[in-house]
Predict the structure.
Amino acid sequence: MQILSKKTLRDFWEKHPQAQRPLTAWYQAVDASAWTGPADVKAMFGPSVDFVADNRIVFDIAGNKYRLVLHVSYTFKRVLIKFVGTHADYDKIDVEKV
């Protein structure tokens, strides 16, 4: 999958250095994948992933310490990072509008 944009992750882990390792691991796993639908994502990440409207996916990162929201296009094999933050930050957003 092509991930747009790694800079979003980098900006976050510069403020939260402890997030770099789990976000890098997530990035590498997704970058090497070729999802064809939600079942592929669920098979890869299991219970640490939730699906919401408009092809958005919420990932629990580092034991749910961080949340990552992305929009996926299975047809074009692309994901767009919409939000990355702490769990507390996530509680303040509308996942369908971010």
